[in-house]
């Protein structure tokens, strides 16, 4: 009888631990910036050293068709946090620039949007975002912080409210001055020709405007251009700063040991919350330009500064894995690693060095809806709950993280809005074999650019297709997903069969 009672108590204890692991796991979300799917060893790279990220693949599930909701930072991250297409939250621009570039911008993730951090915080989770935010800061004043991470469910923030830019690092050139040169050359030429023409007309007597007025116009134009150029040359002092919660702690931003500082903050956050469930979003600045690496990694890779940055990020992932093991949290923690979009393959430094990544066999890159722009790494590890060393070749989205971790935390999904993501756990645990994503929509800012079709009838020889519409000439293409070069359109063949 005593033995039976003892076994019953033991079984109850085991079940209690198991229930905790299922319903209240710690959640660590590791988000790279502009990392190519071909930059990691677990996705086929043989020259960059990423042992810790590869370890996540070995000990968890590798998603081979993991799709970012957008090929740009701001909309992709909005979708990641809310589980919704960015166009639903207004985070898809109608202008050519689809991201926030200024800390003083009044736009941002609307306060009425529900993020997974808000829901997990309500369930008693300690929540932190460390690194890049890029979803706005203020609304009507310079300190209302309506779009700040602390207003979207995070207890703690350490990082950048905007993004990493070339302008923030001396010697790396300027995104804004380059844009000014591109868009102001023709207007300045027109203005110059106009002023000269007016001066000539005044000289020959065809124009009766006082000559001083023309001089004032010329002077005003010169002053305006000088102020504009001066502003952007000193831009990093205004826009590039590091924050802790609502306080600016470094301005301008220093890149010295920055990834190590972010990693230390993440490790310390875990150490402070070993007795409560926690949500940690470690949003790396690597490998968005301006590229940087600390002394212990600089010059150590085979791929210049870009490779150094990738390998330093891998080191950081290793530090997170180590601290979880140190506090015996390995089996109680779901880890997810991904990138907000594909590599920016055209990125070249001011000295001519390639600063863009590698998207493997896939065409295109950041800012495009070819596979290279939206197919990203997707790794999940949760020992005992997710099978180790497995591959999932079903379409998944970074929007799926929202419903997955919300359900694991025991929270209810919002019923007053559409959630486009789907819970990944049934798929990861083998309870189902097909993804719920029959369609995935891909936007170029606010314009529908491509549709990914994954019908339930797997016998169909076009069971996985990518229907792409190019806005330049409205030429439609249907491309098989297995056509990794995306060069052979099936549009004519498929329309003939309709």
UniProtKB/TrEMBL annotation:
The chain crosses the membrane at residues 184-206, 213-235. GO terms for molecular function: arylsulfatase activity; metal ion binding. Keywords: Calcium, Hydrolase, Membrane, Metal-binding, Signal, Transmembrane, Transmembrane helix. Residues 1-19 form the signal peptide. SUPFAM superfamilies: Alkaline phosphatase-like. InterPro entries: Alkaline_phosphatase_core_sf, Sulfatase, Sulfatase_CS, Sulfatase_N. Its cofactor is Ca(2+). Residues 25-411 form the Sulfatase N-terminal domain. PROSITE patterns: SULFATASE_1 (PS00523), SULFATASE_2 (PS00149). Pfam families: Sulfatase. Belongs to the sulfatase family. This is Steryl-sulfatase isoform X2. The gene is STS.
């Amino acid at each position: 009888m005593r033995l039976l009672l003892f076994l019953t108590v033991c079984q109850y204890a085991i079940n209690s631990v198991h229930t905790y692991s299922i319903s209240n796991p710690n959640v660590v979300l590791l988000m790279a910036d502009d990392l190519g799917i071909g930059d990691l060893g677990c996705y086929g790279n043989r020259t960059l050293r990423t042992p810790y990220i590869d370890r996540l693949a070995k000990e968890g599930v590798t998603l081979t068709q993991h799709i970012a909701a957008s090929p740009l930072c701001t909309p992709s991250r909005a979708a990641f946090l809310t589980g919704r297409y960015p166009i639903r939250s207004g985070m898809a621009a109608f202008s050519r620039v689809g991201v926030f570039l200024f800390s003083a911008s009044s736009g941002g993730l609307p306060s009425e949007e529900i993020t997974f951090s808000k829901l997990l915080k309500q369930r008693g989770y300690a929540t932190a975002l460390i690194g890049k935010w890029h979803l706005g800061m203020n609304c009507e004043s310079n300190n209302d912080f309506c779009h700040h991470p602390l207003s979207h469910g995070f207890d703690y923030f350490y990082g950048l409210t905007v993004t990493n830019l070339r302008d923030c690092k001396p010697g790396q050139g300027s995104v804004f001055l380059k844009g000014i040169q591109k868009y102001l050359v023709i207007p300045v030429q027109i203005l110059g020709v106009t002023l000269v023409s007016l001066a000539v007309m005044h000289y020959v007597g065809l124009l009766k405007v006082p000559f001083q007025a023309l001089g004032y116009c010329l002077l005003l134009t010169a002053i305006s251009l000088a102020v504009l150029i001066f502003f952007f040359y000193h831009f990093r002092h205004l826009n590039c700063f590091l924050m802790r919660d609502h306080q600016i702690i470094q301005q301008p931003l220093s890149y010295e040991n920055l990834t190590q500082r972010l990693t230390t903050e993440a490790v310390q956050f875990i150490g402070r919350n070993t007795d409560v469930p926690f949500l940690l979003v470690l949003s790396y600045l690597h490998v968005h330009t301006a590229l940087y690496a600390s002394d212990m990694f600089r010059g150590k890779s085979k791929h210049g500064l870009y490779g150094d940055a990738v390998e330093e990020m891998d080191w950081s992932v290793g530090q997170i894995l180590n601290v979880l093991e140190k506090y015996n949290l390995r089996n109680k923690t779901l880890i997810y690693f991904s990138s907000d979009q594909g590599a920016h393959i055209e990125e070249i430094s001011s000295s001519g060095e390639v600063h863009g990544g590698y998207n493997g066999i896939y065409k295109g890159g950041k800012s495009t809806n070819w596979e290279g722009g939206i197919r990203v790494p997707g790794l999940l590890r949760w020992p005992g709950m997710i099978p180790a060393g497995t591959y999932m070749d079903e379409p998944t989205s970074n929007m799926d993280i929202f419903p997955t971790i919300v359900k694991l935390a025991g929270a209810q999904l919002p019923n007053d809005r559409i959630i486009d993501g789907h819970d990944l756990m049934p798929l990861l645990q083998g309870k189902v074999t097909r993804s719920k994503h029959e369609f995935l929509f891909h936007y170029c800012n606010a314009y529908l650019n491509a549709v990914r079709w994954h019908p339930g009838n797997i016998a169909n020889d076009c069971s996985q297709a990518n229907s792409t519409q190019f806005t330049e000439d409205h030429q439609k293409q249907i491309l098989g997903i297995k056509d990794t070069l995306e060069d052979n359109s099936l549009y004519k063949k498929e329309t003939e069969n309709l």
